[in-house]
Write a structure and sequence with these properties.
Largest sheet: 9 strands, mixed
CATH class of the largest domain: Alpha Beta
Low-confidence stretches: 305-310
Oligomer: single chain
Strand content: 15-25%
CATH topology of the largest domain: Rossmann fold
Shape: elongated
Number of domains: 2
Structural class: alpha/beta
Mean pLDDT: 92
Number of helices: 11
Length: 313
């Protein structure tokens, strides 16, 4: 894109930018070109083509160049836009937080289903560990007005983004934010939590050595767990039963290939009475669900729950 004072039309900009981004190895280059231009102009992709021959003003052209330059350096599109879509609403995201993936939408949907249909009726308490953008906490609170969510994160920057999202979506009175590791900030909630939910870091250090280009722009601490990838998940599995009510549930997003180790880990823990795994869109066991045993029974070894069309055991 030349910096000369040329009267670029919308269509010319889209075509030039799409070709430029393709040369940078970006898949969906034309879509990115359209989305970025629509965002700069404050319009829709459809409107870009309805008025395809309309010239783009110099101020908008400058902002578009800056956005395209960032994308060419493989900065994620969502960071450039400043938002992402999650379920049915829009979330603020930037480089302080991980961009929620479709798999995490499945996690949110399963959490909401549990709270709505499978856990006892009445006001419920949820803990969202490593809340990041607040996507899980906000989704649960927005869908279930009678639920109180405690959201924890070690990052003050991430909590600032999460608070913004809670406020923007009108659930700030339902979500309480706490800074600190794992479940430590809510340790006083012994036996009071109906659901502990988390999309924790689960990438191993070896996997992180060859990240996707876009992943290098996201906060490392939200992605990489440690040498094995289970350094956050394993402590959560061990600590969650103390906070959970009898019959309460631990719900975690996990990495590909981690299900076998978690079957053993949960199965060896007498505080869980059952567990199941839910598969993602790629048929990978992506969500583990473990139910707390009754304290009066003294705890039982975890058994596999019967599978449905989207589960495996």
């Amino acid at each position: 894109m030349s910096k000369e004072d040329k009267a670029w039309t919308r269509l010319q900009l889209i075509e030039w930018t799409a070709d430029f981004l393709r040369q940078k190895g970006i898949e969906g280059a034309r879509l990115d070109a359209e989305v970025l231009l629509a965002n700069v102009l404050g319009t829709t992709r459809l409107d870009l083509y309805v008025h395809y021959d309309e010239p783009v003003g110099s101020e908008a052209l400058t902002r578009y160049r800056e956005a395209v330059s960032r994308r060419a350096k493989r900065e994620p599109l969502k960071y450039i836009l400043g938002y992402t879509e999650f379920l049915s609403f829009r979330l603020v995201v930037d480089r302080r937080v991980l961009i929620p993936r479709p798999e995490t939408e499945l996690l949110a949907e399963r959490a909401i289903a549990l709270l709505r249909r499978e856990l006892p009726p009445g006001r419920k308490t949820v803990v969202d560990v490593g809340t990041g953008s607040g996507c899980l906490a906000v989704a649960i609170a927005k869908d279930l007005p009678d639920v109180l969510v405690h959201a924890t994160d070690t990052s003050a920057d991430a909590l600032e983004v999460a608070r913004t999202n809670a406020h923007e979506l009108g659930v700030q009175d339902q979500v309480l934010f706490h800074q600190g590791p794992f479940l430590e900030p809510v340790a006083e909630l012994v036996g009071q939590v109906h659901l502990v939910v988390s999309n924790p870091p689960y990438v191993s250090e070896v996997e992180a050595q060859t990240p996707e280009p876009e992943l290098g722009h996201e906060p490392l601490q939200a992605v990489v767990a440690g040498p094995t990838g289970l350094e956050v998940i394993a402590p959560l599995v061990a600590a969650a039963p103390e906070l959970l009510t009898d019959g309460g549930v631990l719900l975690l997003e996990i990495g590909a290939g981690q299900a076998a180790e978690l079957r053993q880990l949960i199965g060896a823990n007498p505080d869980y009475e059952s567990h199941a795994f839910h598969r993602d869109y790629a048929d990978i066991e992506r969500i583990v669900e473990a139910r707390r045993a009754s304290r009066s029974s003294g705890g039982r070894g975890a058994s596999s729950a019967p599978a449905d069309g989207h589960q495996s055991t």
